[in-house]
Amino acid sequence: MKVRQSAKNNESNGSTEYDFKKAEERWSKYWQERGLFKANGTLGTKPKQYVLEMFPYPSGKLHMGHVRNYSLGDVVARYNRMRGFDVLHPMGWDAFGLPAENAAIERGIHPENWTLSNIGYMREQMKKLGFSYDWDREVATCLPDYYKWTQWLFLKLYENGLAYKKRAKVNWCPHCKTVLANEQVIDGKCWRCHSPIEKREIEQWFFKITAYAEDLLNDLDNLDWPEHVKAQQRNWIGRSEGALVKFAIEGTDKVIEIFTTRLDTIYGATFMVLAPEHPLAMELVQGTALKELYDEYLKRISLKSEIDRLSTEKEKEGFFLGKYAVNPFNGERIPIYAGDYVLTEYGTGAIMAVPAHDERDYAFAVKYNIPIRPVVVPKDGEEIKNGEVFTEYGVLVNSGPYTGKTSEEAQKLMAEYLEEHNLGQKSVTYRLRDWLVSRQRYWGAPIPVVYCEHCGTVPVPEDQLPVILPREVDYLPGDLVSPLATDEEFVHTTCPKCGGPARRETDTMDTFVDSSWYYLRYIDPHNEQAPFDKELAEYWMPVDIYIGGVEHAVLHLLYSRFITKALKDMGYVTVSEPFSKLFTQGMVTLGGSAMSKSKGNIVDPDDILRDYGADAARMYTLFVAPPEKDFEWSQQGLEGIVRFIRRIWNFYCKYADEVKEAVAAPMGKLFEGMSEYDEKALRAVNRLVYRVTEDIEDNYRFNTAIAAMMEFLNEVTDYDEKVSGAVMKTLLETFAKVLAPFVPFLAEELWAMLGNAPSVHEQSWPQWDESMLQENTVEVAVQINGKFRGTVVVRNGASEEEVREAVMSSGNFSKYLSKEGGYKKCFYVPNKIINFIV
RNA sequence: GCGAAGGUGGCGGAACUGGCAGACGCGCUGGACUUAGGAUCCAGUGGGCUAAACCCGUGCGGGUUCAAAUCCCGCCCUUCGCACCA
Predict the structure, then answer these.
(1) CA to C1' distance (Å), from A595 to B78
(2) Does the C-beta of A785 come within 7 A of strand B?
(3) What is the distance between the alpha carbons of residues A373 and A267, in angstroms, rounded to a whole number?
(4) Is the distance between the Cβ of A629 and the closest atom of strand B smaller than 7 Å?
(5) Roughly what angle, to the nearest 10 degrees, separates helices A702-716 and A614-623?
């Protein structure tokens, strides 16, 4: 009778169906009471491990993506605890922000009530799922004891010249009624509501992330992050090496400064282009007949929406400004245009145009009938066809003294010439712009600044923090007016410097500011004197493993890196990177696309918890696909895991009583008179530990780790009844420990069933014995002329001789091998394969 | 256009430094047990034949090798990110 048939036999064994509800309630309560998952912060007695998952936005309920994300992190946390690490595994809430506010407006509830009640619900869901968080460290970014320190962060950045205010054209979302950072504009649309964004000019606060562009770029090299995330950040930072060149404007004392990466093509510059909004463009037409036409042109350009501007098919539109620049190399007169394909924000907002070697310049030149003069030819002498634009490096022609030089040489020599004559220099430009952090919304951390008639902009002193977000405010968004501006009591204050009347800043901070430092607050969440203790931060930082979705590849992950670097330079932390390893998990889809309320393709974790239990939900999300890949939710797949759990349960029911009194056999040593099946079982359990450990360590391959557990159970149920009590006890105890990080409730139940005191989660992770991974005999594949023809069984480590002998004597291969075992050649890979060439 | 990751059964996916392709699970087929079963268990399941023997099979075409999903050359396709960045 095998255990696989045991469902029928449960009653006869006195066992019952696994009651996951009871088990989950019981153990989750026990864990909390015992405080099993508290990080010790023992400062050095144990190695530390900071395991972090991206905290959720409290949108209402957990979705399957959360379940997957947090199941991954929980395996890592529990595994590391069993491995003897002092594990910090916290959870909190990214609780400020637009969606909370919008949802609250729709439902007519205060954002705070809405948010806090969501948090309460989601926290309970997480507890039901058995995630091993240290709940004493929970943070919510919308609470004053948290945002006090977000405001502190703002002040520190301000003190250090990394926060500043300027009037700027900003991205304005007409639907959300707020400005957005560049990173939050996707294809010219709002990242949240997808409305086309507009350009507005307002005074806004910025963080000077560009000051760290170089470090943010270089330090990527040393991070254990997925390559595609690093690539996205590199792309976003967008470093270009080139040169700044000053072109004098004929008949004036003005110069146009341009940035180019192709200084070597400067002899081919046949026109200049300024961004339409470039102040110089306006100056050049001022007081001329062109002024009126230019105003019209500007109006036309600005009417084009951001989307049109970004469209690749869009025709470039230029305007001749009636003036000429002078090429600093050959003195040539070059007409100056305004053109909408030149961006104000990048480089200097002005270019030299070389139509022969740049596609965009070429299109413009053709349209406005401007000469096209090639000055670089391919090194290999290849012909350039008419109408083709040669944009690569080559050899210079028609370039005065530089003719005959390669592009590389010319760039170097020309830059030297520029510097000698004070006409420009080498330069590096980035695409990265400063981070716009002002938001004209209610539900965020108020920017801690006041404006005084006498003193100007004055930061709120640290000891007056937090600047409390008033509760009773008309928080409906206005047009370019922050809701806080309507609260007279909030607005009117006194200047901290002179005591005179002053007005508060009424904008709140981008929620990405809140989340850019939360991993530091977990380290010391109740500290009232500082955002965190320096020594504790030194102990816990950096986060050893950070798990979350790819959607944060640039936004949150770049901001956090910047904030960490800034805090390091101010002396608050000692690390320059917050997350040494990043793991981005895939999405959970249904019907081929990400689950979303609007699409209606939702699987509600509550239903799954109710019908199948936490362990099944967790293990299924871990098993169904490699963790970094998307997977399609399948009820049947989940039921497969439920079956597996049931089989484990039945197996333990069958033997638990029997082995209670037994003394567990050691993992490694084969004792005298051990039976064949005992040995088999012992080897199987060693192999199990080995495979699961390796799979976890090798980039979290939980899907194959679980497959190894299934194989293990499949194998031992083939001969379980022949295994002795001592070995069975070892087997059951070890398997329970291996299961613990994956199905924590079940594992605890199994552990107790064996007569052990809780908790299995306090046990050490089992060790395998290297010698037990080897079998006594191995199956060697036999190939004839490279084709598989069968196998032979030989002793482990058999020599080529022995294997050849076994092949010859087996008789199975005689039809392929000539008599006397004749063959030309033979290749043997020990314990694997033997190939005869005949 | 630039950058990144991928193409393996009906499906999700395994396969260590080249060494028995398809582990594990889902699904499917047949059987057992059952009043019944969508429960459970047993057997089978890449394609070609009823079947063994055999042949063919990891996107396509070449190549290296005793041996290729894996290495090299040349293509094709998919997904994702960025995109008038000078």
Answers:
(1) 22
(2) yes
(3) 8
(4) yes
(5) 110
Is 50 exceeded by the pLDDT of residue A10? Answer: no
Report the C-alpha gap between A501 and A453 in whole angstroms. 7
**Angstrom distance (rounded) from CA A211 to CA A432:** 10
Binned at pLDDT 50, 70 and 90, residue A476 comes out as confident
CB of residue A5 closer than 7 A to nucleic acid strand B? Answer: yes
Task: Decide: CB of A335 under 7 A of nucleic strand B.
Answer: no
Q: What is the pLDDT confidence band of residue A647, given thresholds at 50, 70 and 90?
A: very high
Q: Å from A424 (CA) to B22 (C1')?
A: 64
Give SS3 for A531. coil
Mean pLDDT of chain A: 89
Region A751-771: mean pLDDT is: 94
Q: How far apart are CA A79 and CA A747, in angstroms?
A: 13
Tokens of A236: 């976003």
- Give the CA-to-C1' distance from A201 to B86 in angstroms: 25
Question: ipTM beyond 0.90?
Answer: yes
**DSSP calls for A447-494:** P-EEEETTTEEEEPPGGG------SS---S--SS--GGGG-HHHHEEE
pTM of the complete model: 0.92
Query: Which residues, listed in sequence order, are joined to residue A794 by a DSSP beta bridge?
Result: A778
Query: pLDDT by residue (tens digit) across A287-302?
Result: 999 999 999 998 887 7
Does residue A151 have a pLDDT over 60? yes
Give, in Å, how far the C1' of B36 lies from the CA of A593. 39
Q: Is the CB of A711 under 7 A from strand B?
A: yes
Note the pLDDT tens digit of each residue in A440-452: 889 999 999 999 9
Q: Are strands A435-436 and A198-207 parallel, antiparallel or unpaired?
A: antiparallel
Torsion sign across C-alpha atoms A626, A628, A631, A633: positive
DSSP of A604-628, one letter per residue? -HHHHHHHT-HHHHHHHHHHSS-TT
CA A568 to C1' B49, in angstroms, rounded, equals 73
> Minimal CA–CA distance to A557: which of A533, A539, A583, A534?
A583
- Whether A194 sits with its Cβ under 7 A from any strand B atom: the answer reads no
Strand, helix or coil at A413? helix
- pLDDT in the model for residue A683: 92
How far is residue A720 from each of residues A246, A589, A716, A746, measured CA to CA in Å?
A: 84, 39, 5, 21
The answer to whether strand B lies under 7 Å from the CB of residue A105 is no
Which H helix or E strand runs over A784? strand A777-784
Distance CA A768, CA A787 (A): 36
Q: What is the mean pLDDT of residues A792-796?
A: 85
For A21-50, the DSSP string reads: HHHHHHHHHHHHHHTTT-----TTSS-EEE
Alpha helices in A286-329 (DSSP H): 291-303, 306-310
Q: In the structure, what pLDDT confidence band is assigned to residue A237 with cuts at 50, 70 and 90?
A: very high
pLDDT at A311 over 80: no
Q: Which residue gives the smallest C-alpha to C1' distance to B16?
A: A694
| Nearest to A585, CA basis, from A625, A612, A555 | A625
